[in-house]
């Protein structure tokens, strides 16, 4: 690129004006706006807000360890494989070879298929662990951000998992898609890839808008229940987990939208009372989607539930139903399924 040389007098005048401006404001550049990017040529330091806590980064982390598939794929979608020491997750999260960022899995070390712990992070020489409450972080296991801080390792919490203060374990502080966009923006700033983050957000918003434009509306919207696991009591999604936005944006009425949590256990009597017209199965774990379907269809208390009587059951993969870059495509997929199932 060609550059233009300024006369010496102009350069001196420019320097004097810059110096005067800095002196006038006391050089408090980073205080001009909360979480604002510092002015000047340097990207760092940057300050973000993560689950209500301010975090300041003086440089981009270079050895990030991620936990679980959705969190790992957020890093891959942002093109941050070179900043990762590896990822931890079991091998029950479905096909990893057909996603747009599949190269991330070949370029990044799979550290363990067991539950993440402090020793894994230390062995990987991690400088940051990207996980979430109940997505790796858990007081009962002695693996929390304060525990990592004691050994010099930073933490970034998945926004879907932020605790909301309703009770000790309740999670969720914002709509699920907003949580995804928040994490993309935050990490875009932390790793100096803001343009890439904004490009993804724009793409995802368009995908969601396109799906919504074709989704069922008004009285045609079916009541939908998300079945994760459990026989005595079902584990399901509340207001703050990704399935809420996936179901709602896809043209469904989420029957657990009044549950102010992300993922939680409810009673079968609640499911029966709310009579879902469609059930979405979360496909992962030792119990297959086919086995979950067979249980739902054979479980006597559900025999008069509309979804069971009319055999309206949809299967989505775990990685589509936790906060991840797969959420927008899941909305489009579910919207098509709901239209088909409801004959619209």
From TrEMBL:
Record carries keyword Signal: yes
Lineage top rank: taxon: Bacteria
Leader sequence residues: 1-26
Pfam families in the record: Peripla_BP_2
InterPro entries in alphabetical order: ABC_Transporter_SBP, ABC_transptr_periplasmic_BD
Fe/B12 periplasmic-binding domain span: 63-344
Family from the record: Belongs to the bacterial solute-binding protein 8 family.
Protein name as annotated: Iron transporter
Organism: Streptomyces finlayi
């Amino acid at each position: 690129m060609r550059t233009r040389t300024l006369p010496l007098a102009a350069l001196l005048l420019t320097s004097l004006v810059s110096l005067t401006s800095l002196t006038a404001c006391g050089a408090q550049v980073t205080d001009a706006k909360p979480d604002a990017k510092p002015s000047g040529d340097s990207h760092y330091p940057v300050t973000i807000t993560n689950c209500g806590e301010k975090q300041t980064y003086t440089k981009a982390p270079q050895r990030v360890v991620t936990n679980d598939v959705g969190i790992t794929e957020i890093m891959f979608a942002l093109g941050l494989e070179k900043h990762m020491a590896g990822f931890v997750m079991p091998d029950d999260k479905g096909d990893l070879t057909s996603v747009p960022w599949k190269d991330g899995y070949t370029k990044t070390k799979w550290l363990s298929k067991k539950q993440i712990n402090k020793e894994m992070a230390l062995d990987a020489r991690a400088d940051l662990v990207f996980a979430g409450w109940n997505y790796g972080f858990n007081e009962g296991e002695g693996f929390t951000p304060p525990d990592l801080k004691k050994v010099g390792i930073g933490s970034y919490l998945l926004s879907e998992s932020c605790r909301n203060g309703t009770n000790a374990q309740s999670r969720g502080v914002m709509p699920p898609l907003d949580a995804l966009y928040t994490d993309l923006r935050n990490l875009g700033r932390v790793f100096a890839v803001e343009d890439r983050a904004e490009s993804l957000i724009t793409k995802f918003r368009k995908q969601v808008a396109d799906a919504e434009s074709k989704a069922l509306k008004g009285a045609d919207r079916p009541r939908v229940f998300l079945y994760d696991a459990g026989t005595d009591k079902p584990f399901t999604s509340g207001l703050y987990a990704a399935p809420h936005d996936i179901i709602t944006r896809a043209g469904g009425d989420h029957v657990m939208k009044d549950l102010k949590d992300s993922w939680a256990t409810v009673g079968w009597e609640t499911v029966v009372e709310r009579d879902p017209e469609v059930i979405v199965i979360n496909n992962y774990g030792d119990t297959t989607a086919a086995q979950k379907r067979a249980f739902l269809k054979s479980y006597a208390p559900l025999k008069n539930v509309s979804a069971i009587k009319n055999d309206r059951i949809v299967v989505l993969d775990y990685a589509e139903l936790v906060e991840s870059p797969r959420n927008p495509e899941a909305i489009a997929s579910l919207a098509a399924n709901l239209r088909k199932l409801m004959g619209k």
